[in-house]
Design goal:
heterodimer, A: mainly alpha, MetI-like fold, 2 domains, 2 strands, 70% helix, 1% strand, B: alpha+beta, Rossmann fold, 6-stranded mixed sheet, 6-stranded antiparallel sheet, 22 strands
Chain lengths: 332, 362
Amino acid sequence: MADNDKKPGASPALVHSEEVLERFTKASDRVTMGRKTYGLSDRAFMFFFLLPSLFILLFLVGYPFITLIRSGFYNFSVLRAATPAKFIGVGNFTFILTDPFTWERFIFTGKFVILNVLVQFLLGVGIAYLLQKNFKGRSVVLTLILMPMMLCPIVVGLFWKYMFNTEWGIVNYILSIFGIGKVEWLARENISVYSVIIVDTWMWTPFMILLALAAFTAIPKYLYEAAEIDRASSWFKFRHITLPLSAPVLIIAVLFRMIDSIKAFDLIYTLTGGGPGSATQTLSFDLYKRAFQYFYTGEASAYGVILLLVIMSLSLIFIRYLNRLAAQNVRR
Amino acid sequence: MSTVRLENLKKYYGTVKAIDGVNLNVESRSFVVLLGPSGCGKTTTLRCIAGLEVPTDGKIYFDDRDVTGLSPSERNVGMVFQFYALYPHMSVLENITFPLRACRVPPKTIEEKVKEVVQIFQLKDLLKYKASILPPGDQQRVALARAVVRDPGVLLLDEPLSALDEKFREKMRSELGKLQKRLGITTIYVTHDQREAMALGDVIVVMRDGLILQVGSPQELYEHPNSIFVGNFLGTPGMNFVECRYEKGSLVLKGTSYRLKLERQDLIAHLVPYEGREVIMGIRPEYVHVDGKLKDGGLSLEVVAIEPAGRYRLIDFLIGEKVFRVRTDWELSLVPGRRVGLQMREDRLCIFDKESGRAVVS
């Protein structure tokens, strides 16, 4: 209380002591700059510091987002910017959701996402489990294994496109050594789906490995020692110690891969171009075509909103589960 | 219950010798305490017995069965780790049943066993809680329950009380002692706390630098330490050590003119080779009598400091440069600076070799 010229204890009159009391209570939540008290609370002060970044965020995220939702309700194309956008209510949404082609894409995307994430999860956790133990050249193996993840998806798609070539691709060449005939990796509808999964798995399993390995190494060694004393088998240890204790990280990894798979575009674009026909078009591929090939801007906006809702609700399920895991560990 | 035998056990980490040849016999149902300062190899020894470390050399026998090469799960040991190592994501019940479930014990047997240990350790109200949120005292009980639930042949305890606070530690200590007698499991207990060791052990094994210095009952070690280290390590405060010269049946205390005439024939007999040489005399603080009257030719010293310790006081004197502590009651009024007479009980005297630190007579 540098600015307090009257000593609170010495003030004789009751009026004075009240004034002093008020001063004491208010001063605690004000910014005292050493000499004078301004009428600015800590909270307001913090708000002013946050304001610039908040503004940028609003401009970069808030504005486009609102525009997206808005144009979802209009019949509008950026190609015909001169034609005024026509408000059609939920017309775009009903059109998309009643279109059997959209549902085909939904089913394909679902199948692709589930298979893709499942394979990557099993491979990732399995390989991470093997890589836990220290062996000679472990760091070299680890670096090599992580390489695919560092490549550009477009490049990966192109490489594999050549490798999968039916006539002169290396994959079929290797298969021919074992007497297996030519496989049309990218040209057959029922095979191309798996080709895409193979490539995505090749590229993104390292991500799973990395996170699983991090989760595994965070588990204290003494728990395994205790389990060893308790006569637990390797599987029992894995099932009852490794998995539950790394679950939060693994769930996040699966969530990441899931969202990424739903959004999968670049790799598919260069690998199959969505073909044959529309066999390997994911939802986001479909969205891309509507937005930037046919330029149905209003329709694509509605499509984007639907996709966003799907991804958000999926994430919500995972986050709920994560929270429950966390709560379990604190609940008494 | 198993017996445990260690034969010339060695464990080297590179050039560091954690254990350097340990021989030990642990009898069935006995409570053996491995005692020593940190880094003496006691925990490593315990981990070798558990099978968590592979010894560099030597053999470990359980009931004359060589278990040296066996994994922990093949040895049937129970262990409580220093920080308990409970499975944090499991409830107390799941923690206790873990060793049973891991061995596919039928549910009916599990139920019976759980009932039994829950009763012993009074865990009934804790069963559904997560192990990680329990206070250390409860965690310790759970860890003990988990260790004994499947009737191990040997129970290994690695400083199980060190995470508890002082008051609680004393309580758990006495409970642990009673429990071991009741269950009758062969127990090997590691600690650096000599009071714990004295209170709990049937047999105390004092270790230092990867070697066993002395094995014996608490009383044996206390009254007859075989080395300066053991005498100093056991007891609060430890033994007093005074440099002396042995001359014709007398000890001349260095730094004083006092000459202690020895009466005990066994002492004199053992000291014959030390005629004219320096030895270390050891005596515990409670075996020195403080007398207000000064005697001619007796030892008299000036009080340096007084430290109250409940029913007793610890009085610091100086002999030469070294502190000489005496435990005495409150009868005599003492102030720093006062000169008093001191009489040592000859029957409690220990003599050590100055070079090796080994006991000549104790």
